[in-house]
Each structure stands twice: as C-alpha cells, then as structure tokens.
Design brief:
Helices cover 15% and strands 29% of the residues. By secondary structure, it is of the alpha+beta class. It has four domains: 96 residues, Sandwich (Immunoglobulin-like), CATH 2.60.40; 195 residues, Sulfite Oxidase, Chain A, domain 2 (Alpha-Beta Complex); 139 residues, Immunoglobulin-like; 55 residues, no CATH class. The radius of gyration is 35 Å and the shape is globular.
C-alpha cells in the first residue's frame, strides 16, 4: 500500500513536468529568434599612410543595447585605448545609429584590418567587417643591422613626398626604362642569355619614372660599406638582395638602383602608380640595339655577381625579376665573416708573403665550423646550359680541397656570442694564378657538411657563412714596386695600372706611395740647419 502511494506520487510529478516542458516549448516556438548581428563598412579598402573615414552600419543587435564599435588595429578583438572607437546605443530595432563613422589611423600596406562591434559590451564580439589596404606603397623604412641582428641607431621612415623634396630626384619622367624577360630559347648558351638583348625586352617596359637612389636612402641610416648586403623588400614580403658595389658603384649598363615613386606611363605618383614604389634600374642605352635604357639579362650577367642573378621559374635568366614592386623596406646588413689582418682589422687586399686572417661575428653560438678558401665565386646560383635542353637548375656548391690554396681547413668553435678569431688561414707564397677568393665557414652541425649551404643575413636558422655572398671576399695582388722619378729626392712609387686597379668588392683605396718623403724632409731640415748656422757665424 505504501509503495503504491509512492509510485502514484512519482508518476504525478513526471506528468506535471511534462506539461511544464510542453508549455515552455510552445512559448519558445512563438517567440521569433534574434537574427545574427551584421556589420557593414564603406569604404572597405584604402592605402597606406592615408587616414580614411569609414561609415559603419549594421543590425541584428540586442535592441537598445550599448557597446563599442572600433577599428581593431592590432587584430586582438580587444578595445585598446589607442584604437579609434565609439560608444554607441543601438535602436529599438537593434540597428547601429545612422551617421556612425570611424577614422582609420595611418596603416601599413597589403594588410587586413577589422572593424568590430561589441554590443552589448562584453565578450564575445557580436560582428566584424574586414578593411583591406592595397599593396601599393607611398613610403618606406630604412634600417641598418650589425652582425648580431641588432639595429644600429634608429630606423628612418620616409614618405615619397619627403624623398622628392629632400633627396636628389633620379629620372625626368620622360625617359622610359626597361628590363628583360626570359628568352625561352634553349638552342645554346647565347640564346639563353641573349647578349644581343633583343628578345622579350618590350614586354618589360617599365615606363618613364622618377624616384630616389637606393644609395641616398641607405645613407639616411649611416650608409653601407664594402661587405654589407642590402635587402630590398616589398609590402608582400617578396625581396631581393644586393651588394654594396651594386648600389654604390653601379656600372653604366646597369645604372643606379632607384625606388620609383612616379611614373608618367602608369598613373603618375603613388598610389595611382599601382606597382610603385618600384625598384628600377636606370641603365644607359649602350647595350640596347634600339637605343633603349634597358637593363638586360646579359647586363645582369656582366655587372652583378653570380649569386644575385635572377631566374624565371628557377632556370631562365630574367633581369626583370630583380625589379621589386611595392617597395616597403630597405635593410642594410653588416657581414658575419670578415677577412682581416692579425689584429682583426678588416682587409680585402693581400700580397705574397702576407697572412690572411678571418674573424666571425654573430654566427651560431658555441658551434663548430670548418674554414675554407675557395676561388670566387662561391654560390648555389649557376644554371647548367646544354645545347637543345632547357637550362638545368642550380645545384649546391661542393667545397673542394684541391681548390683551397691553403691546403688545409681550420676548425673553429664560436663563443657564447657566436664570435671567433681572428684566425690565420693562409700565408701566401708566390703570386697565385687565381686572384679572387671567398672564405666559407662550413657548419659542422647544420646543413650539408662539405657543401655551401646558403645563409641569408638576418636568418633565424643560420647554416654556413661566407665573407661576401656577392663579390669576392678578398684578393691577392702583386706587391707594389718603387720606381724613382727623375729629379726627385727619394723618388715616388708608381703602381702599374693593373696593380692600382680596384678589385670589385674591395674597400682598399688606390695608393701612390711617396717613398723617400721622409728622406726629403730630413734633407730639408739638415740643409736648413746648415744655412742658419752659416748666417749666425
């Protein structure tokens, strides 16, 4: 009897709950669900360094709720004090009030930003809309780095207007410039490289431009020096590397490297010049069969080191691949591996009887390296050309003991800073047949031991290092001879033109040695003393 009463009570409770849930379900079905909040902005895109007023509309928010609408500059979905923001209360129908606007800060190029609405205030964000900046650049930043990757001084950020007003303007806006594309003709070496520079040039018409010399921009942060490498980087992170000599001592057929911010044939000034700011080669017209100012594939071959040649699809020479579009950053990197004298002073010219030393800075810490000397160039960037076949892609450079004039490879271990040396690596005997050399520090811990594994300055995963990734690291020349000049006291040492000629990549000046100068001074003093003694006696 007792158990029956319990069962009846239990069943009654379940029945009551069923009725309640049924009523609640019918009520929920009769209440319309809130639509997902939406956000719309106009315009949806802009350009770098230009503040833009954005109109914000949207709906589907909780009626009469209040919260933030803001420009999420750093993309963290959090309202930061420095970000443009508004506190708004939506309408009875859940719409953002008409006339709601935000002004963007000055933005970076080629990037997605977000306008967000957090209404009612508090996580999560109810709605977002994307705002995009174009890749076109209107300014750039120049930064100089020491061998450890530490910024030297302060970076300089300049707009194209500042460049135009404060630095020499290159180009006249009338003379057009060209590069050259691939020939796609595999008949033989000459058809691949096209020394005549008469194939696929018109397609690389880059217009009548004005701009600023990369050298002048580098000088804003103290300039580059021999052995330094310069990286020209686009807003989409594409980049190309160049050497001091290419920037500071360009051959006429190559021309100055110019960051162009105006183009008479492609829209005028940036941002209307949509591929600007663009790196152009202001070559002369000496090698073009049509008298064009064209930096051709063979010009690239003849003026730039092998390591810097560009190949379309990795196999076909094409100078146009060096013409970086939408330039945004210029980085100057000091070398990690340096030929020196015994005291560790940088030196790039040696003579028979002298000893070549090398030191390392900012390499992998506490790591073992084998030091090699190899004839220049050492690079992994030389295609193989076989008549009638498409060019064969470059392969790894294998270090050769037979080509090392020192006959041995020293082993060094870097310290906690990644430094070593100076270490003697070669005492030069007689004048060698080869005059130009590279020094390679072959990592014994990473990459392929016995091959040169390319190291890019600023890399976070270094492998091997080279004293000059472009031109030679050091050169060996004859010792200068002294030739007395008739009628002189002691004579003047005169260097032959071959001896005094600068080696590409060398920072050593051309010297005219004034041998006997000290003797002449001593003779003058002696004569002066004798003359004074006679006057006083």
């Amino acid at each position: 009897m007792y158990e029956r009463a319990i069962r009846k009570a239990y069943l009654g409770t379940l029945l009551s709950l069923a009725v309640v849930f049924s009523v609640l379900a019918s009520m929920a079905a009769s209440v319309p669900a809130l639509a997902a909040a939406t956000l719309t902005i106009s315009p949806t895109s802009g350009v770098m360094n230009t503040a833009i007023t954005i109109t914000v509309t949207g709906g589907g928010f909780e009626p009469n709720a209040s919260g933030y609408v803001w420009f999420d500059t750093d993309g963290d979905s959090t309202v930061d004090p420095s970000e443009p923001q508004l506190w708004v209360t939506v309408t009875d129908s859940g719409d953002i009030p008409a006339g709601t606007t935000l002004e963007t800060p000055l933005l970076e190029p080629n990037k997605n930003y977000w306008v967000r609405a957090d209404i009612p205030s508090g996580t999560p964000v109810e709605a977002s809309a994307v705002f995009t900046t174009s890749a076109t650049t209107t300014g750039l930043t120049v930064t100089k780095y020491d061998p450890y990757g530490v910024v030297i001084g302060s970076p300089e950020t300049v707009t194209y207007q500042w460049m135009k007003d404060n630095l020499p303007v290159q180009g006249d806006g009338v003379t057009p410039y060209y590069c050259q594309g691939p020939t796609f003709d595999n008949t033989n070496f000459n058809t691949v490289w096209n020394p005549e520079e008469n194939v696929n040039v018109d397609s690389r018409f880059y217009g009548a431009a004005k701009g600023t010399d990369v050298k002048d921009l580098a000088n804003l942060v103290g300039g580059a020096a021999p052995g330094d490498t310069i990286r020209i980087k686009a807003s989409d992170n594409f980049s190309k590397w160049f050497d001091y000599e290419t920037i500071y001592n360009p051959a006429a057929r190559q021309g100055k490297l110019v960051v162009a911010w105006y183009n008479n044939d492609f829209g005028g000034y940036v941002p209307s010049y949509s591929t600007g700011m663009r790196l152009l080669f202001f070559a002369d017209d000496s090698t073009s069969p049509w008298g064009w100012h064209a930096f051709g594939d063979w010009d690239m071959h003849e003026t730039m080191p092998e390591a810097r040649w560009h190949y379309y699809s990795g196999t076909w020479p094409s100078s146009s691949g060096l013409s970086v579009q939408v330039v945004y950053n210029i980085g100057i990197y000091q070398p990690n591996l340096i030929s020196t004298d015994a005291a560790g002073n940088a030196r790039e010219i040696f003579t028979p009887g002298e000893t070549v030393y090398v030191k390392g800075l900012g390499m992998a810490e506490n790591s073992s390296y084998s030091l090699w000397i190899q004839p220049e160039p050492v690079s992994n960037n030389k295609i193989t050309i076989v008549d009638g076949q498409d060019p064969i892609p470059p392969s790894a450079y294998v270090l050769s003991s037979a080509d090392d004039p020192s006959d041995a490879q020293e082993t060094v271990v870097t310290d906690d800073n990644g430094d070593f040396g100076p270490v003697a690596i070669w005492t030069i005997g007689s004048l060698p047949a080869v005059e130009k050399y590279d020094i390679v520090a072959d990592s014994q811990a990473s990459g392929t031991v016995g091959s040169y594994d390319v190291y890019t300055a600023g890399s976070t995963s270094p492998k091997d290092f080279i004293d000059s990734p472009g031109f030679q690291g050091f050169a060996v020349t004859e010792a200068p001879t002294v030739t007395p000049t008739p009628g002189s006291v002691g004579g003047i040492a005169v260097l032959s033109s071959a001896q005094s000629a600068q080696q590409p990549g060398s920072s050593a000046p051309n010297y005219v040695l004034l041998a006997g100068g000290a003797a002449a001074a001593l003779l003058a003093l002696t004569a002066g003393g004798w003359y004074a003694k006679r006057r006083l006696s």
